Each structure stands twice: as structure tokens, then as C-alpha cells.
């Protein structure tokens, strides 16, 4: 989630784009259908972006559902559930979606605060689905480590490949692509992650580990030749995949 106060020219441009593309057309539509009361003052707006490509949902004023992280002014204390008023806080630090929202959605939320427009957005899609992939990746990684300790190298490589692929897919799911979300093949994940790495988005050793395991997996699982790797090399792969999973988890976890 990124939060911006709309004071600079760039920030103002970003704000205007969201207003022009989403909020103002929705206000006009409601005005034409008699659903917008007059006089009207815009105090907040929210655009919810769905991972399946469905038309965004635009919320206005009291329809906005979000959680704000604020710092109380010196001398002000509150209990959980107490109302908080604008004159009691120093500013609005963060804005993120409530837990009741679909965790796979992205959003842009705009709030007027102390005569300043504050805008927060999170364009990571499929966060809930990606977290489920990471949970399973951790299970495969544990299975790979158990096989490593037993010197069952083929089982170790097979499980390690599954863990690396799931971690890579979790990272890729954060980008909007309904087709990839619905059906991602081994080759598709491999190709996309390599392209993602080519842009400098992940550590080169993560790509190298996935590529190595991609090549070894068939030989290990389907006995299609010898798997010639030293214990040290497999240990390095195991440690790297653990880092891949942690990297994916850091990218996916909501920034609250």
C-alpha cells in the first residue's frame, strides 16, 4: 500500500487521473439517475479492482470502507472502539482495506483530510490466493528438507521443485492477468518468472534455482537419467528456495 498527500504536481496529476477516469463519471451517472443528492460535496472515494477483470466498483463518501492508521495528538487517549475526530490526530498515515473485503482485490482510496487530499493504493492482485500458494510451498519445502536429511535425493528435488514453482507463482499472481490466475502451466510459470527476473525484479539466484530444479525434476521423479548433484549443491538449492518463499511472502503480506 502506498500513501500520498496530494500537494506536489505529480501527486496532483495522479489524483486527477483517478478522479477523471473513475469517480467523476460515476458521479455523473448517479446524477443522471437521480441517485446523487444536491448540493454534493465529495469527501472520499474508493475504486475496487477485481482480479478477474470485472468492472471496478466505485464507492463515494459513506460507501467507502477502509481502515486508517493515525497518530493521536499528545495528551489524547482512546480505548478500542472509541470515535476518533480529526482534531484529535496529527495526520492520516496509512489507509488499507478492511478484512471483510476480498483479499484478491486491489484498490485506490481517496480521502479529504485537513484540507488535503490523501490517496492510498494497492495494486497487488490475488493476495489471498498467493498466500495459499505460499502456505503449500512451505509444506513442500519441509518435505524436501526431510528427504534431504534422509538422503532421499530424488524426493528432495521433486518436492523442492514444487516449492520453488509455487513461490514463483505466488509472486506472479500479484500482477493482473485473469488467464494466468485461471490456468498456469509449468512452462508458463517458468517463462514468466524468467522474464520477471530479466527485469531485475527478483534475485538472480532465485531464477537460477527454479531453472535448475525445472531441468532436474523429470529425471528425479520419472527416473529419466541420473541426478548428479553433490549434497552441498542440493543444500544450496534448499536454502535458496527457502529465501524464494520468504521473498514471495514479503511481497504478498498486506502492508499494515
Task: Give descriptors for this structure.
2 domains; two-stranded antiparallel ribbon; 256 residues; Four Helix Bundle (Hemerythrin (Met), subunit A); alpha+beta; 7 strands
CATH class of the largest domain: Mainly Alpha
The CATH superfamily of the largest domain is known as Nucleotidyltransferases  domain 2
CATH architecture of the largest domain: Up-down Bundle
Low-confidence stretches: 1-6
Side-by-side strand order of the widest sheet:
1-7-6-2-3
Characterize the main sheet.
5 strands, antiparallel
Rounded to the nearest angstrom, the radius of gyration is 24 Å
Q: In which range does the helix fraction lie?
A: 40-55%
> Which topology of the largest domain does CATH recognise?
Four Helix Bundle (Hemerythrin (Met), subunit A)
From the spread of the alpha carbons, the general shape counts as: elongated
The ordered H/E elements are EHEEEEEEHHHHHH
Whole-number total of structural domains: 2
Amino acid at each position: 500500500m502506498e500513501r500520498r498527500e496530494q500537494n506536489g504536481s505529480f501527486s496532483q496529476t495522479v489524483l486527477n487521473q483517478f478522479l477523471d477516469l473513475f469517480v467523476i463519471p460515476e458521479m455523473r451517472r448517479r446524477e443522471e439517475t437521480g441517485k446523487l443528492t444536491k448540493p454534493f460535496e465529495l469527501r472520499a472515494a474508493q475504486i475496487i479492482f477485481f482480479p478477474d477483470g470485472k468492472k471496478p466498483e466505485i464507492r463515494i463518501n459513506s460507501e467507502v470502507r477502509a481502515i486508517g492508521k493515525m497518530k493521536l495528538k499528545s495528551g489524547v487517549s482512546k480505548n478500542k472502539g472509541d470515535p476518533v475526530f480529526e482534531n484529535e490526530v496529527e495526520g492520516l498515515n496509512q489507509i488499507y482495506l478492511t478484512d471483510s473485503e476480498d483479499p484478491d482485490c486491489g484498490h485506490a482510496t481517496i480521502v479529504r483530510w485537513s484540507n488535503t487530499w490523501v490517496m492510498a493504493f494497492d495494486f497487488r492482485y490475488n493476495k489471498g490466493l498467493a498466500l495459499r500458494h505460499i502456505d503449500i510451498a512451505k509444506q513442500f519445502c519441509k518435505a524436501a528438507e526431510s528427504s534431504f536429511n534422509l538422503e532421499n535425493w530424488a524426493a528432495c528435488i521433486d518436492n523442492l521443485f514444487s516449492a520453488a514453482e509455487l513461490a514463483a507463482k505466488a509472486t506472479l499472481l500479484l500482477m493482473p492477468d485473469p488467464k494466468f490466475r485461471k490456468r498456469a502451466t509449468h512452462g508458463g510459470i517458468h517463462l514468466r518468472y524468467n522474464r520477471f527476473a530479466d527485469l531485475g525484479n527478483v534475485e538472480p539466484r532465485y531464477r537460477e534455482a527454479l531453472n535448475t530444479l525445472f531441468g532436474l525434476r523429470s529425471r528425479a521423479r520419472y527416473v529419466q537419467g541420473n541426478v548428479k548433484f553433490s549434497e552441498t549443491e542440493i543444500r544450496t538449492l534448499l536454502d535458496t528456495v527457502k529465501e524464494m518463499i520468504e521473498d514471495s511472502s514479503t511481497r504478498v503480506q498486506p502492508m499494515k
